[in-house]
Amino acid sequence: MKPPVPEIPVPVWRDFKDLQEWEQLHKERPSGDKHSALFESVTEGIHSFPGGFAVTTVADAFFNWARKSSVWPVTFGLACCAIEMMATFASRFDVERLGMVPWASPRHSDLMVVSGTVTIKMAPMLLRIYDQMPDPKWAVSMGSCANSGGPFRHGYHVVKGVDRIIPVDVYVPGCPPPPESLLNGLLLLQDQIAHFRKTGRRAPPTPKVD
Amino acid sequence: MTSDQARASIGERFSGAQVEGTSPIVATVQPEQWVALAQFVKETLGCRFFSYSTAVDWKEGLEVVARVDNVDDRIGVLMKTRLAPGVSSCPSLVPVYRGANWMERECYDMFGIRFEGHPDLRRILLSDDWEGHPLLKSYAVDTPHPPYR
């Protein structure tokens, strides 16, 4: 049986269904997911008080320094990217010098490195582990599969990007990303944490790479 | 027993069957003779090892495939049966080969073939609330699975 020869139209960027889906999804996602209304109203009050900005900004700088110097990733490996993640956590690339201790409990962790393919069957468990982590928490999407579904995007059983389940702070491309790449992603995450504004609001995405 | 003798004996026993090849011997029978063929192949030809079972969606009907082997005499038999268009029910091989149990569950999972006489026919790989059978040609890959897709 001879397959029919498809007529491929000239691709227009806006015509790609995947990109349309991505835009739609990121339009609907709420932005300030790390903020508590009560806490923010209190800090707003202090901030608007005359001279109060000195308190909040110094407190911010201190808290951000503390947060970014002790990011504990939860031990959570999903697929082949987990091997590279383990290499990053091991002695050669040693992220412990950055204050990251891979911790075996989500209840003591701040960071989830989603390393690998997220299947539809695994998605509820991933969400459950993420929900068990205390705020403030961050997520790094590692590898093509977690970023967008990767080679399995047009399959039937893979979640097309982990950002459909949890909010993601840093995307690390690669299949799988080498430890250097993940390390760069983690440094970017630390940079992002350092720019948290007023005790807990999410920083705007910094386009600074390298 | 050699492979040629085995092929001849299958052709002798099942007159309507289409038998060809040597390694493996490809035997295509009607679904009514499916279990009888498996029994014959196991007991007479000594193919005691159930290698795998799967299916093919040819759009004009499903085809159930099973491969069994006689490891001592190096005889491999690929059994096939073609279901009529629109039919998704086939006799189960579990009474003959116990190893067919999970294979047929996977086949049910992926192709929606209901194996008559299977002791525990439910999904094995996909979650229980999955809708549809993804390896069918009629399955749309973009089928939404809320909330994760």
Automatic annotation (TrEMBL), chain B:
Keywords: NAD, Quinone, Translocase, Transport. Signal peptide: none annotated. Its EC number is 7.1.1.-. It is an enzyme of class 7 (translocase). It catalyses: a quinone + NADH + 5 H(+)(in) = a quinol + NAD(+) + 4 H(+)(out). The keyword Cytoplasm does not apply. PROSITE patterns: COMPLEX1_30K (PS00542). One of its GO terms (molecular function) is NADH dehydrogenase (ubiquinone) activity. The keyword Transport applies. It comes from the Bacteria. Residues 28-143 form the NADH:ubiquinone oxidoreductase 30kDa subunit domain. It holds the Pfam family Complex1_30kDa. InterPro entries: NADH_quin_OxRdtase_su_C/D-like (IPR037232), NADH_UbQ_OxRdtase_30kDa_su (IPR001268), NADH_UbQ_OxRdtase_CS (IPR020396). Belongs to the complex I 30 kDa subunit family. NDH-1 shuttles electrons from NADH, via FMN and iron-sulfur (Fe-S) centers, to quinones in the respiratory chain. This is NADH-quinone oxidoreductase.
